[in-house]
Structure to design on (226 residues):
């Protein structure tokens, strides 16, 4: 989706290092979400934010942190506490109206060795 | 426990024929369902959705059918094209987290020329 930019596309880190994944949107959507996808699995919710300066844990928040200082930006930090950080990370946004779809960025593939 | 299930990991179809992708769910309170298409190393793209007040929604070559009594939905693609080859995810709107989607594990569709 052209309105959601995730960078970088590929990221490599050594075990024990924190790493921050960027997500920027120009869709003027209030809500933003971070998902993780593992091979053969569906997407699982890590964190979400319905409004600036507020965010909530999703199903698999342990070992991750986020911030939402601006409407356009929702960075995700993968900390050294995350046991299995290697995965494909997807950022999504949503319009405020009910029953509208999530819009996804193109993802960041994180590999930790 | 998986709330949204796609029991077929893969499906192979001849070009020009119909592709039928299936999805089952466990929570009878779900009221909004979506299908997404995903290419490798890219974010999911929204295809089509259906509200529980309907049993069918059509958009070009894509039709989604909802059978509430069976807690089953299906995506029909007619006619199938090689460019339709991708992983298809079924999702239901989360009743607890506004905007969140609960995803199935996906079905990989291969359309052969």
């Amino acid at each position: 989706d052209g309105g959601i930019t995730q960078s970088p596309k590929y990221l490599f880190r050594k075990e024990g290092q924190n790493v921050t994944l960027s997500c920027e949107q120009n869709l003027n959507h209030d809500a933003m979400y971070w998902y993780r996808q593992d091979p053969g699995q569906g997407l699982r919710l890590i964190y979400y934010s319905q409004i600036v300066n507020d965010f909530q844990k999703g199903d698999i928040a342990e070992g991750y942190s986020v911030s939402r200082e601006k409407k356009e930006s929702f960075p995700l930090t993968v900390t050294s506490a995350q046991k299995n950080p290697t995965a494909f990370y997807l950022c999504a946004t949503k319009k405020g109206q009910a029953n509208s779809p999530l819009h996804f960025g193109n993802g960041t593939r994180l590999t930790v060795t | 426990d998986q709330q949204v299930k796609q029991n077929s990991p893969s499906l192979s179809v001849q070009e020009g024929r119909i592709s039928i992708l299936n999805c089952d769910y466990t929570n009878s309170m779900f009221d909004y369902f979506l299908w997404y298409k995903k290419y490798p190393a890219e974010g999911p793209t929204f295809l089509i959705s259906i509200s529980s007040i309907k049993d069918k929604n059509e958009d070009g070559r894509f039709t989604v059918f909802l059978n509430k009594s069976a807690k089953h939905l299906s995506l029909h693609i007619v006619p199938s094209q090689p460019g339709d080859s991708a992983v298809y995810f079924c999702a239901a709107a989360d009743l607890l987290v506004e905007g969140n989607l609960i995803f199935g594990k996906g079905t990989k569709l291969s359309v052969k020329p």
